[in-house]
Design a protein that fits this description.
Length: 279
């Protein structure tokens, strides 16, 4: 199928882009197009105007500071994945991005686009939530920061206002006493996962003082569960999750994957933390 007709604008400044977005209530931002264009082609979305942000300056950065990794709205998944500095600051970014789609899609799709598209099957929203990251957005009344745990309000739904543009995502650095791990089950490499999780463990000496996991492709939005001290992490996780059924997997199968993967990924994150602590 072909998309329904739409107007197309490609502004060259952020303020022009905000104006173009604000003056049409049915307008949508176009970034890498790797999620939006399939939706248009299947006529699951029919915006009257696309505001292409690819001509905006200064948004393609991947900047590392001691606090963490700042990813601009036009940084492609592949650029974030290729950044050795980003991988050193927050290894979970690389671990997750390796599972996002295929190389050709990662060359075009943006990390910020993935974060704000809020697909419950996507890796990055769960990673951002687990790490306590945030997104900076610009709107008619200026810039604001939305914490990841206030960003996701439903499947494909965020707390961003319709006339706002996300300009940057922030992924906090991994502190020296912490470790992370990631695993997902997909039918083929590059497919969306049938279920997956990222884990974040903090040690005090050799003792685990915090163990949390961020689940994606399990419920209808990314979900972080605190599993500190749980004897059976899989069962403890399931007490907070309500797996969804779709054409890719039944709810029972997703629950099974949660029970199997959770202890495994937590153990790997603990090993990672111990390895980092011992040098
Ligand atoms: C075959 C295939 C497989 C894929 N597999 C995976 C996968 O395994 N895991 C995964 O996570 N993703 C997967 N993707 C999606 C891919 O990661 C996309 O790049 C990503 O979801 C969206 O980024 P984008 O830049 O392409 O956004 P677009 O498609 O341009 O936009 C997506 C949505 O976000 C909005 N948006 C984008 N950027 C902004 C912004 N800066 N401000 C405000 N709104 C914005 C758009 O208006 C739109 O609603 C796959 C895509 C394809 C085609």
């Amino acid at each position: 199928m072909k998309p329904a007709p739409f107007a197309y604008v490609r502004p060259s400044t952020l303020s022009e882009a905000l104006t173009a977005l604000g003056e049409d209530p049915d307008a949508k931002v176009l970034a890498g197009g790797q999620s939006l264009l399939p939706l248009l082609s299947m006529r699951l979305a029919a915006p009257s105007r696309l505001v292409d942000i690819n001509g905006l300056p200064d948004l393609d950065h991947v900047t590392c500071t001691p606090a963490g990794v700042r990813v601009g709205a036009l940084a492609r998944h592949s650029a974030v994945l290729a950044s050795a500095e980003a991988a050193a600051s927050q290894p979970l970014l690389k671990m997750a991005l390796e599972h996002v789609a295929h190389a050709t899609i990662r060359n075009r799709g943006t990390t910020v686009g993935s974060v704000v598209h809020a697909d419950p099957a996507s890796e990055l929203p769960a990673v951002l939530m687990l790490l306590g990251g945030s997104v900076d957005v610009e709107g008619p009344s200026g810039r604001r920061t939305i914490a990841a745990d206030e960003l996701y309000v439903g499947p494909l739904e965020t707390s961003m206002r319709r006339d706002e543009i996300a300009v940057e995502a922030f992924f906090p650095a991994l502190v020296p006493s912490a470790g992370v791990a990631f695993e997902e089950i997909a039918r083929r490499q590059g497919d969306y996962a049938m279920a997956g999780l990222a884990a974040h463990v903090v040690l005090d000496g050799d003792r685990v003082v915090s163990a949390r996991a961020g689940f994606f492709s399990v419920c209808d939005q990314p979900t972080v569960v605190d599993l500190t001290g749980a004897d059976d992490p899989g069962a403890a996780a399931m007490a907070h999750l309500d797996p969804a059924a779709d054409i890719h997997a039944t709810a029972d199968y997703r629950a099974h994957l949660v029970r199997v993967l959770t202890p495994r990924v937590l153990a790997a994150a603990t090993e990672h933390a111990r390895g980092r602590a011992h040098g």
